[in-house]
Amino acid sequence: MRVYGSVLKLRLSMGMQYRAAALAGVATQFFWGFITIMVFEAFYEYTAQTQPISLREIITYIWLQQAFLVFITMWFRDNELVELITSGNIAYELCRPCDLYGFWYAKLLAQRLASAILRCFPILIVSFLLPKPYNMTFPPSLTTFLLFITALLLGLFLLVAISMFLYISVFVTMSPAGSLLLFSILGEFFAGLIIPVPLMPLWLQKIANVLPFRWTADFPFRVYSGHIPQHEAMIGILIQLGYLLVLVLLGRFALNRAVGKVVVQGG
Fold it and tell me: I need a surface site. Which of 18, 30, 48, 248 has the fewest CB within 10 A?
């Protein structure tokens, strides 16, 4: 565990150096945040039915999306890992005296954490100071906030476990393009990044509830706003833990199978 902790700390320090890129990302995320809010504002103004989630909760949902974007998106990838696999330099990784899955997992986790730390605080601070109805609101209680933090971190661990399958697939396809497209489309839609899950048709909600993507974004964001009650949030956190355990075990098995069939040529 000390090895993986050291990798996490080192990669976190490296990621914190890209401050200019983070500031550019913050500006872009504010732009998309306002655009998305105005689209939903128009929808709620002219809808003839009462929606299962309020506009106020949607606005908070959107600002949380923008603040923790790198926690919840599948398109955020490590090109270095892809290059290692496709170039044959994976042979050097196999010489490391540590578990390859744990090493890569710690590296990917640190990259997302570093990027989120640089971006989330400016977005959250400004979003709280915006005039109504565009401002973000506080959670209903301290307990709700603690449940949100727990769900958000577990969602991050879960997303990293899901993204590991992207890199594992490169051992077979030798290109991340197809896997990235598939994971991005499925992941972002069923995570609620395009349409919040409560606004989906019931049959789509049933599919979203079965897939792990929803538990990475939609679940923690609705816990924050109080749309998901505290007792349901606790049950959801247990479901997150179950998904995480299953995906990590499957990921380890798949990576070991893929590495066992690797043939590196050259000299």
Answer: 48
What's the gap between Cα 121 and its chain centre?
Answer: 17
Condensed to tens digits (0 to 9), the pLDDT of residues 42-100 reads 988 888 788 899 999 999 999 999 888 888 887 777 777 777 777 777 777 667 767 78
Distances (CA, A) of 224 to 6, 89, 241: 32, 43, 18
Spatial CA neighbour of 64 closest among 137, 114, 115, 131:
137
Q: What is the per-residue burial (b if ≥16 Cβ within 10 Å, else e) of 219-233?
A: bbbbbbbbbbeeeeb
With cut-offs at 50, 70 and 90, classify the pLDDT of residue 228.
Answer: very high
Integer CA distances (angstroms), 239 to 39, 70, 175, in order: 32, 22, 32
- Rounded CA-CA distance 252/30 in Å is 38
CA–CA separation, 176 vs 85, rounded Å?
Answer: 10
Backbone angles phi and psi of 130, in degrees to 5: -65, 155
Q: Which residues of 102-132 are buried (b: 16+ CB within 10 A; e: fewer)?
A: eebbbbbbbbbbbbbebbbebbbebbeebee
Phi/psi for 54 (5° steps) reads -80, 160
Task: Report the pLDDT value the prediction gives residue 262, as an integer from 0 to 100.
Answer: 64
SS3 265: coil
267 — pLDDT class (breaks 50, 70, 90): very low
Contact 174, 84 (CB under 8 A): no
| Cβ burial, residue 264 (10 Å; 0-12/13-18/19+) | exposed
